[in-house]
Design a protein that fits this description.
The complex is a heterodimer of chains A (about 300) and B (about 300).
Chain A lengths: L22 E12 L2 E12 L3 E5 L6 H8 L7 E6 L2 E2 L2 E5 L6 E2 L2 E2 L18 E5 L2 H8 L2 E4 L11 H11 L5 H14 L15 H13 L5 E5 L7 H16 L4 E4 L3 H7 L2 E6 L2 E6 L1 H6 L4 H10 L1
Parallel strand pairs in A: 3-12, 3-13, 10-11, 11-12
Antiparallel strand pairs in A: 1-2, 1-4, 4-5, 6-9, 7-8, 13-14
Chain B lengths: L1 H6 L3 H20 L7 H9 L3 H32 L4 H16 L2 H14 L8 E3 L2 E3 L1 H27 L3 H9 L4 H31 L11 H12 L2 H31 L12 H6 L16
Antiparallel strand pairs in B: 1-2
The chains are: A alpha/beta (about 300), B mainly alpha (about 300).
Chain lengths: ~300, ~300
């Protein structure tokens, strides 16, 4: 099945949003634990404006966890993630002056337990989770596409797309509908405007999910294994939309096993294993001449 | 489906109930010192006095308002129970613990008689245009609603938990706040799971309002109770009273099954639509068109 994806995908939302700085994502020494499991170990990843970074690695390597940290769907225990120069999910406060932190809120009548892991590394500043409202407004600038689409089943395709622009951005209804229709056309689903997600194929749902994320005019798009839940014949149509988006200059982080896509579109491939960035480089370099044993082993299994 | 259980109508059952009623009249008539006066029974059913109509209205009105209050409180209590902020969790848990752990009758007595006797709180009467709503009605409605909220909390919580966490994540990733995520994304989907048990709760509520007779609210039961006090036709009048309640819950059963069938339409993962009205009345299986269902993505 081939899909006509018209050019100028971003034209539907008024062009590429201009990030304030050249570095869009700046993750520094990010550490995350799930209980005792150390899932991200000192991860440093930078993504520049209009760059497409594909994160590869075996399952359980922390790649999905990492991009979920970028829009603060997951908490981090130390390190900093900046998007467009703004610290994501946290405020920095001077260490020592604050109260012990449990679950993001200061608990007054509670003595610090000896041996509790403290937020922040040995530095003088420590992280306090930001207010929910601030986190929500940071997320408006970061689009995310999920493995399982996560379309809202009680809304039609168009309603899915215009929901956030109207209720989060405060866009006028007519304007949002016009933009939503333009986006639906761009992803080749103009005819499906009034259709509910459960009547659409996986590939169609994922394309609408991409349109829904784009409707917020994000400066950065995160893709969490966008084609892993799709039947093979539907992968192409979704990748086509993503390629178009990349060509138009959207900044993207893509967790994917689609090596063909990485080769064609990615500026950089980041290989992760066991919570560590093993190596990174251009797709040609990483795929044809991997420097690390672990990369070689992974690629030999997947290619 | 759950609704069919509380509806429980079939021609056989109606006939059986009729026979039972007649034999009850017969037995009561034979027992000697009680004289059955059937017109008390039939008059209060077919020519209801204004007092009965008033009682019926009160029962319905109080039920609806208490149930709405219960749902609202239930939503807040459920969200409190799931809150990250501990004091909210404690407050919700204490509320549910107290109101599910004590009898409604005791709650009514304590919050109406107890509080005013101790001079802590006197329930006010409310003037709504030409109507004066008596303090016992205000108190009864609110206490019923607060009690109901404690039960609704668990139902609402189960509904919220039934929604895929991916929905919350998608809403969050679009920049929605917690309130927006709940009201626009999660609760509308939770409603599918909440509404069937909510229907049963309302069925219960219709009958539970009879406890307000303790506060001298002249709802349906109290009206009959007072009438019985002057005529001593307790057999006929309480029998008629039961028939009135049965009528209310039966009509509600029809409404409930209609709502459930509407709700089941066009939603993926929703429970199958319940049996139709005909199937419920006559116990026949509805014709299922295999081609019209089960379409969809995955």
């Amino acid at each position: 099945m081939t899909v006509e994806v018209s050019h100028n995908l971003l034209g539907a939302i008024g062009g590429v949003p201009r990030p304030e700085t050249d570095v869009v994502v700046d993750a520094r020494d990010v550490n995350k634990w799930f209980g005792r499991l150390h899932v991200l170990r000192d991860v440093c990843i930078q993504v520049r404006r209009q760059e497409v970074v594909v994160v590869i690695g075996p399952s359980g390597s922390g790649k999905t966890t990492f991009i979920r940290c970028v829009n603060h769907l997951e908490k981090i225990q130390s390190g900093r993630i900046f998007v467009n120069g703004h610290l994501i999910g946290y405020r920095e406060t001077p260490a020592g002056g604050g109260l012990p932190i449990v679950g993001g809120l200061p608990i007054v009548n509670r003595l610090p337990v000896v041996g509790r892991r403290t937020n922040g590394s040995a530095g003088a500043m420590k992280l306090v989770e930001d207010k929910e409202k601030n986190i929500a407004s940071q997320r408006q600038e970061i689009g995310m596409v999920f493995q399982r689409f996560n379309l809202f089943p009680h809304m039609t395709a168009l309603e899915n797309i215009i929901e956030a622009p109207i209720h989060v951005r405060g866009m006028a209804h007519d304007e949002a509908v016009a933009m939503g229709r333009a986006l639906l056309e761009r992803v080749g689903l103009a005819a499906k405007e009034k259709v509910y997600p459960n009547q659409l194929s996986g590939g169609q749902q994922q394309r609408i999910a991409i349109a829904r994320a784009l409707a917020m005019k994000p400066a950065l798009m995160l893709f969490d294994e966008p084609t892993s839940a799709l039947d093979p014949e539907m992968i192409g149509e979704v990748l086509e939309v993503m390629k178009e988006l990349a060509r138009e200059g959207m900044t993207m982080i893509v967790v994917s096993h689609e090596m063909g896509f990485a080769r064609e579109v990615a500026n950089r491939v980041v290989m992760m294993d066991d919570g560590v960035v093993v190596e990174e480089g251009t797709p040609d370099r990483v795929f044809s001449a991997p420097a690390q044993e672990r990369t070689k082993a992974f690629l030999s299994k997947i290619l | 489906m759950i609704a069919s259980r509380c509806l429980g109508l079939s021609t056989r059952r109606v006939a059986l109930a009729g026979c039972l009623l007649l034999s009850a009249f017969f037995v009561a008539g034979c027992s000697g010192n009680y004289v059955v006066r059937p017109h008390y029974f039939f008059d209060s059913l077919f020519r209801p006095s204004p007092a009965i109509i008033n009682g019926l209205g009160l029962t319905l009105g109080i039920s609806v308002i208490s149930q709405i209050l219960g749902v609202v409180l239930g939503v807040f209590a459920a969200m409190g129970k799931m809150a990250k902020f501990r004091p909210f969790r404690y407050a919700a848990n204490i509320y549910i613990w107290i109101f599910r752990g004590t009898p409604l009758l005791v709650q009514l007595a304590f919050f109406f008689f107890g509080l005013s006797a101790a001079g802590i709180f006197k329930w006010p009467e409310v003037v709504a245009g030409p109507v004066i709503i008596l303090p016992e009605i205000i108190a009864g409605t609110i206490i019923l609603g607060v009690n109901e909220g404690a039960y609704m909390a668990e139902i609402v919580r189960a509904g919220i938990m039934s929604v895929d966490p991916g929905q919350t994540e998608a809403a969050k990733s679009l920049g929605m706040t917690y309130g927006q995520t709940m009201s626009r994304i999660v609760l509308p989907q939770a409603a599918r799971v909440i509404i069937p048990p909510l229907g049963n709760e309302f069925n219960n509520m219709l009958k539970t309002t009879s406890l307000l007779s303790l506060l001298s609210v002249f709802e349906l039961y109290n009206t009959f109770s007072v009438a019985q006090g002057t005529s001593y036709a307790s057999f006929e009048l309480f029998g008629a009273c039961a028939v009135w309640y049965l009528l209310l819950t039966t009509i509600w059963g029809f409404i409930q099954s209609y709502i459930e069938r509407r709700l089941a339409k066009g939603t993926s993962g929703a429970p199958e639509a319940g049996p139709g009205l005909r199937a419920r009345l006559f116990g026949q299986r509805p014709y299922v068109d295999a081609g019209s269902s089960g379409l969809g993505g995955h």
